[in-house]
Design a protein that fits this description.
The chain has helices at 18-21, 43-46, 53-67, 78-81, 90-105, 121-124, 132-149, 162-171, 182-206, 228-250, 256-261, 276-280, 334-345, 374-392, 435-444, and strands spanning 11-15, 71-75, 109-115, 155-160, 211-217, 221-223, 286-291, 294-299, 311-316, 351-357, 360-361, 397-403, 417-418, 422-424, 431-433. The chain is α/β, with parallel strands linked by helices and 450 residues long. The protein has a single domain, classed as Glycosidases (TIM Barrel, Alpha-Beta Barrel). It has an eight-stranded parallel beta barrel with strand order 1-2-3-4-5-7-10-12, surrounded by seven helices. It has a three-stranded mixed sheet with strand order 6-8-9. The protein has a two-stranded antiparallel ribbon with strand order 11-13. A hairpin with a 6-residue loop joins strand 14 and strand 15 (431-433). Helix 7 (132-149) packs parallel to helix 9 and helix 8 packs antiparallel against helix 9. It is globular.
Length: 450
């Protein structure tokens, strides 16, 4: 399988997030993000590994052109564009104009994500996504971005991975803002989806010649065994991590089986108001699929106050071996299976693989200067082959974005784990293509097969 066997207009790209690569956290009017303060630590230590994309974006766009990608997915930093008093920040707005200018000169199509987890800290202090007002503030931010860059950007994503923002940030507390309250987690999930719906409605009103979707991290979940209790655990985990977001966006309702389980938490559902589901289900132009692996579910009493969800999950690095402690055999083609399921259960919606990558221990150059990230190269090749399989069955897949472009800040994982195709020296900020990037470059040039 080679590049020539994909459609001519198929988008091949790489993806990034503003907070992970930009740096310049206290420059040109940027206000603090929730990640600047989570967990509390010395700012110099926190940002030591940033690639400093804010100052080096021209070199990075030249690197994108060298890779041969046709598209680049990046996010806007909300704290850079809006100050606490809701006034636009001209210097922040100008930065993204410069980035778009560089991409345009390199003939690289921008796919812009409005929100990738970097909520301004002043909104966290007002309650964050657990409060409905944050969704209203987001519509102001979205309107500013769309009216400023709308004629320059053909593809938009409202939110990246609202599941993690809600459940890891407000339920489990292992990501910013570090809350551990499952009522707040369900509120946050609803308000994130509401913000998405309102943003899409505003986008439709602008009559822009572009398309808008959302990027969900979706995980095929297998039962750890044929036992009934594990099978039920897998169904419930799928409902929470996949259908809790897919169903309201496309079907205008939450999964009925989980609503019944969550009744103690949602008895009055004061955060759901009349007209919300109509906004949530505003038609999408495409569905972004973030895919990092599959998981097995086993019945297990978790130490969280989430009634009815007695489930433990074991992640599997797709394409890199089977899970341990499971009687079931993981699928060898989980991304293909997921794309086929989406096309079957949520038909007529174009699909874009908006993030697909492997998080590994930090990789450093060998004495000869090469960074041999063989596992990442295998991972990308295996999943591009599954995308090709989906295209061969006429599934509506329109693009593929490898995650991630550059090594950078890795959220809750710390500086010793990385997901970039491009190595960044933490001291000099020197960029160097890893072996996975060299292979992807050759594949896109038609010089390497899957």
């Amino acid at each position: 399988m080679s590049r020539s066997q994909y459609p001519e207009d198929f988008l091949f790209g790489v993806a990034s997030a503003a907070y992970q690569i930009e740096g310049a956290v206290a420059e040109d009017g940027r206000v603090p993000s929730q990640w600047d303060l989570f967990p509390p630590r010395d700012r110099e230590t926190l940002h030591r590994g940033f690639p400093d994309h804010y100052h080096r974006y021209r070199d990075d766009v030249a690197l994108l052109a060298r890779l041969g990608v046709s598209s680049y997915r990046f996010s806007l930093a909300w704290p850079r564009l809006f100050t606490e008093d809701r006034k636009p920040n001209p210097k922040g707005l100008a930065f993204y104009h410069r980035l778009l200018d560089a991409l345009d000169a390199a003939h690289i199509v921008p796919l812009v994500t409005l929100y990738h987890w970097d909520l301004p800290q002043w909104l966290v202090e007002k309650g964050g996504w657990a409060h409905r007002d944050t969704a209203r503030y987001f519509t102001d931010f979205a309107e500013l971005a769309l009216t400023t860059y709308g004629d320059r950007v053909p593809l938009w994503i409202t939110l990246h991975d609202p599941q993690a923002e809600a459940f890891l940030g407000y339920g489990r507390g292992i990501q910013a803002p570090g809350r551990q309250n499952w009522v707040e987690a369900l509120q946050a999930a609803h308000h994130l989806l509401l913000a998405h719906g309102w943003a899409v409605q505003g986008f439709r009103g602008l009559n822009l010649k572009s398309r808008m979707g959302i990027a969900l991290t979706l995980t095929p979940i297998l039962s750890a065994s044929p036992r009934e209790e594990d099978r039920l655990a897998a169904e419930r985990a799928d409902a929470l991590y996949n259908r809790w977001f897919l169903d309201p966006l496309i079907r205008g309702q939450y999964p009925a089986d989980l609503l019944e389980l969550f009744q103690p938490l949602m008895r009055h559902r004061p955060w759901i108001q009349e007209g919300d589901f109509a906004a949530l289900a505003t038609p999408l132009d495409f569905l972004g699929v973030n895919f990092f692996g599959q998981a097995t579910a086993r019945h297990h009493q978790l130490a969280v106050d989430l009634p009815g969800l007695d489930v433990s999950l074991t992640p599997i690095n797709a394409g890199l071996g089977a899970a341990h402690d499971t009687e079931e055999v993981p699928s060898p083609t989980p991304l293909y299976d997921l794309l086929r399921r989406l096309a079957r259960d949520y038909p007529a919606i174009p699909l874009v693989v908006t993030a697909n990558g492997l998080l590994t221990q930090e990789e450093t150059p060998d004495p000869d200067g090469r960074i041999r990230d063989v596992d990442r190269q295998r991972f990308l090749a295996a999943h591009l082959e599954q995308v090709a399989q989906a295209l061969g069955e006429n599934l509506p897949v329109q693009g593929y974005y490898a995650w991630a472009f550059l090594d950078g800040f890795e959220w809750a994982h710390g500086s010793r784990r990385q997901s970039g195709l491009v190595y960044v020296d933490a001291t000099t900020r020197e960029r160097r293509l890893k072996e996975s990037a060299v292979w992807y470059q050759a594949f896109l040039a038609g010089e390497a097969d899957l």
